[in-house]
């Protein structure tokens, strides 16, 4: 077994979630990597333990507890370390902002380790619903807030209906990509799938103008060809 990392006071600045003590970033990364490695190699959430993580990371168990109070916090931190920052959206149209955010799920979701990790988390949803709630409140919170802002901007600008349920809208936008990547384990090769998701969503939620119907093709899409005689 490797010798445990020592917490070094001379490490780069950074304080533990459980206090103001400085900590060793190398130990942090070793703990997170070990957690991800165990889960991605088939260790279930139920079987995961601080002892297993400590042994794999080469740290003392107390080193982990100084950073995370329990297994749930550790797993959420490990998942969060894989997430991508919200991309810049300034200057883009409503459609392009939504496509950018939905397509980023594709980039994040192409990581097969993340597929397995989130699949393992979903398997715990029935027994530990609070874990899924914490996942939503921490790991995916920034992207959720970004989608909320874009949708609110669309309502304020008159592009989207005022009565739109924003939580339902976000599930409509993110659900198909998540189902394709995580549940069905099918790769998404390009941005086209995200564009289809967003266009379908917008076609049902845009303000209906005079002389049009809810099913009218959006202006940014080509009009369907006339049927052959």
From TrEMBL:
InterPro entries: DNA-bd_HTH_TetR-type_CS, Homeodomain-like_sf, HTH-type_TetR-like_transc_reg, HTH_TetR, Tet_transcr_reg_TetR-rel_C_sf, TetR_C. SUPFAM superfamilies: Homeodomain-like, Tetracyclin repressor-like, C-terminal domain. Residues 49-68 bind DNA. PROSITE patterns: HTH_TETR_1, HTH_TETR_2. Residues 9-19 have a biased composition (Low complexity). Signal peptide: none annotated. The keyword Amino-acid biosynthesis does not apply. Residues 25-86 form the HTH tetR-type domain. Keywords: DNA-binding, Transcription, Transcription regulation. GO terms for molecular function: DNA-binding transcription factor activity; transcription cis-regulatory region binding. PANTHER family: HTH-TYPE TRANSCRIPTIONAL REGULATOR RUTR (PTHR30055), TETR-FAMILY TRANSCRIPTIONAL REGULATOR (PTHR30055:SF148). This is TetR/AcrR family transcriptional regulator. It comes from Streptomyces cupreus.
């Amino acid at each position: 077994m490797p010798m445990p990392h020592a917490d070094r006071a001379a490490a780069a600045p950074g304080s533990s979630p459980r206090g103001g003590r400085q900590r060793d970033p190398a130990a942090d990364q070793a703990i997170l990597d070990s957690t991800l490695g165990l889960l991605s190699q088939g260790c279930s959430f139920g079987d995961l333990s601080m002892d297993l993580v400590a042994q794999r990371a080469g740290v003392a168990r107390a080193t982990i507890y100084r950073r995370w109070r329990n297994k749930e916090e550790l797993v959420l931190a490990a998942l969060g370390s894989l997430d991508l920052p919200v991309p810049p959206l300034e200057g883009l149209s409503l459609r392009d902002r939504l496509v950018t955010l939905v397509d980023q799920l594709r980039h994040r979701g192409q990581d097969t380790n993340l597929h397995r990790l989130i699949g393992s988390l979903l398997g715990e949803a029935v027994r530990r619903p609070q874990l899924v709630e914490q996942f939503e409140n921490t790991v995916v919170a920034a992207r959720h807030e970004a989608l909320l802002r874009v949708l609110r901007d669309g309502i304020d600008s008159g592009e989207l209906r005022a009565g739109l349920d924003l939580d339902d809208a976000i599930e409509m936008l993110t659900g198909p990509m998540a189902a394709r990547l995580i549940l069905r384990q099918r790769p998404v090769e390009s941005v086209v799938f995200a564009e289809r998701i967003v266009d379908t969503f917008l076609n049902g939620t845009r303000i209906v103008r005079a002389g049009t119907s809810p099913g009218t093709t959006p202006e940014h899409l080509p009009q369907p060809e006339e049927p052959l005689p």
